Amino acid sequence: MNNQNSVAGIYSPPFRIVVKYFVATILSFIVFNLMLLIDYKSISGHHFQPKILSINHILTLGFITMIIFGAMFQLVPVVLEVKLFSAILAEIQFWIYTAGTILLAYKFYFFTSSLSFEFPAILLSLAMTIFAINISITMTRVKKWNITGTYLASALFWLLITALAGYLLSKNLDSPFIKINHLQYLKLHAITAFIGWVSMVVMGVSFKLIPMFTLSQGHKLNLAKWTFFLVNIGLLGINWIMHYPETGIYTLIFGLLIFVGIVLYLIQIFIIFKKRIRKRLDIGLKFSAFAFIVMGISALLNFSFLFFDYERIKNLTLIYGFIVLVGYISFLIIGQMYKIVPFLVWYHKYSSKVGLEKTPMLKDMFNEKLAELQFYLMISGLVVLIPSLLMELQIFIFIAFVLFSLSSLIFGFNMIKIFRS
Amino acid sequence: MITKEMKISEILDKYPDTIKIFISISPHFKKLENKILRKALASRVTLEQAASIAGVEINQLLFELNKTINADFKNYVENKKANDTQQSINELKPDWLKNTPKEKIIELDVRPILDKGQDPFTDIMKKVKALKDDEILLIINSFEPVPLYSVLGRKGFEHYTKKEGNIFKVYFLRQKNFYEASPVQDQNYKQPSLVEFEEVMEIDVRDLLPPEPMIKILETLSQIDEKTVLLVHHHREPLMLYPKLEERGYEAISHKIDENYYKVLIMKKKK
After folding, report:
1. DSSP per position, A335-384
2. Which among A28, A238, A410, B15 could disulfide-bond with A374, CB atoms 3.0 to 4.6 Å apart, if both were Cys?
3. CB contact under 8 A, A343 and B251
């Protein structure tokens, strides 16, 4: 028999620290959408432009990576049954990271000479290193290891590689020294960020969260192991080959490995969804299910890029960026936040009062009808945006961003409602 | 054939009659009569583990169980046992028994107690407690009370068994120089605190989404007193529940059945 009562009370990191990450995440999402709206005229043409780079980093650093940090402080202890090594480091990291994010977005946006690229890059790399150290030490204390831990450990590795690549790119912008093409190196930075860091976290965590939220049982995680090896080997290969000017057939081979890995992952998720007990998908799971579909589409799209010169089709890189960043990652994050944030707030404020006084139901902590509206606004935004970018119809691009902005305001409203309930 | 690696639940499923043997061998097994507790406690416990928890000699338990389920085995061991018993009876009376005057031998015949369908264990322990150092306890029974050997052995008693016709006479004497209940042994003996509970409440939260399992469990706590254990069927280990139980003075033991099924036993903390 497994006696666990000695571990009671150690799992949750302080609420006030995790909340900072969550609030910064919500703010970043709103800022990202409003800036798209303000600068809609700049969202066209080549992706290597100051405003696009700035807005992009508000989303990737301020929203995506911010929520991963916050969620991992909460999830790693629960999933791996271990105490977080240091809550103080988590707090220090937050301020360094937030400063770095704001300064980098500012520097990209204005391209002012009064601030180097290197300085925000140093702040961001420092914050990410602190995070990696904090979680790594936490992981060395784990007694019962599982596949989610393996995914998260590899994600930490890729986070550091992404940060390093980002730092080198920033130095290169200040004064060029990278021998290979800056844009090729940027591509490496992006691939490592989205597949190595973001997707490894998403996949690893989903093996725990999706069954928890859908009450799925009896599925095996065999495919998950294959995905892990295929994607990581593919990524190592890409990271190696892209340091050469000519990548040749190799990108095809490594790209194929990653593609097959992601397909196997999606089959795994499909199996988990199939075996769920709760058939009805609530709003959080609707966002998530949509995200998984788009993840499949973006993997397919990315794979097809290996076979033709996609940069010659106007705005295709941008379209691809929106599909990945909004359709896949943002939908998934928002969906999971609609599940996790009410639970965290409820646990913090009400769990000690259960049975003693009345406590709210999770679904009453936010307006589900509005969340539903947000879901359809975001989908409509994407549906309008993609053809308008392809055909360069500025007015429709503007309309798409209006839809996005409205949806982000609804999200902000609902999240505030949760925190205040 | 029952082996020591078999699970208790497996044995009871296959041979429901063996429940009587379990109970007759040790009062600790009484809780197995309760189907809920049986399900909760016995599904992963092997016979060997159970024997050590209850303080019963494993071979004795195996022997008794196999005797009931298999006629051939019964004959085989009966013969063997007859020889063994013969041997022990042929052994010389130990000196301590020879040198003790009759009035120093305290006699307890447990047969009438057993006939009434009661468990003689508490009566025996009462006598043991009252026993002076130079006195000998004589237990008279219709079968050889093997579990007592180890129970009293841990309390520092040696024994001598004599078969007279159909009855067994077992003499117990407290060894000199034996520090009663040295900490380690004492702990072993007290280990299964669970068997002290009288009531089991059972709830199944497997079809609830978080945090409803936690809500349901916490709401049920008000009905859990010192004598009741709450058995929760859960789809995962409720890690976030533990601190909340702690706050309210409860503790939990989680018992993994498979990836998606945990049995969680919740009880009030001992002061």
Report:
1. HHHHHHHHHHHHHHHTGGGTTTS----GGGSS-HHHHHHHHHHHHHHHHH
2. A410
3. no
What ipTM was reported for this prediction?
0.75
Q: What are A328-346's pLDDT values in tens digits?
A: 999 999 999 999 999 999 9
Nearest-angstrom CA–CA distance, A68 and A60:
10
Q: Which residues contact A18 (CB under 8 A, 6 or more apart)?
A: A70, A73, A74, A344
Q: How far apart are CA A236 and CA A243, in angstroms?
A: 12
What 3-state DSSP class applies to A300?
helix
Which fold does the domain B1-88 belong to in CATH?
Answer: SP0561-like (1.10.3910)
Per-residue pLDDT tens over the stretch A56-108: 999 999 999 999 999 999 999 888 888 899 999 999 999 999 999 999 999 99
Q: Considering only alpha carbons, which residue of chain A is nearest residue B261? A: A217
Determine the residue of chain B that is closest to A82 in CA distance.
B239
3-state secondary structure of B146: helix
Domain B197-268 matching CATH 3.30.450.40: the answer reads: no
Indicate yes or no: CB of B243 within 8 angstroms of CB of A218: no
Q: Can you name the residues that pair with B140 across neighbouring β-strands? A: B109, B169
For the domain spanning B92-187, the CATH number is: 3.30.110
Omega into B94 within 30° of 0, i.e. cis? no
| Nearest CB partner across the interface for A9, out of B209, B221, B243 | B243
Chain A hits for B235, CB-CB cut-off 8 Å, are 215, 217
**Would you list the domain boundaries of chain B?**
1-88, 92-187, 197-268
Residues on chain A touching B252 (C-beta within 8 angstroms): 4-5
* pLDDT tens string A164-211: 999 999 999 999 888 888 888 999 999 999 999 999 999 999 998 898
Contacts of B237 in chain A (CB under 8 A): 4
Say yes or no for a CB contact (<8 Å) between A213 and B260.
Answer: no
Structure tokens at A85: 């090594």
Question: What is the three-class DSSP state of A24?
Answer: helix
B242 CA to chain A: closest CA distance, Å?
A: 5
pTM over 0.90? The answer is no
Amino acid sitting at position B213 = P
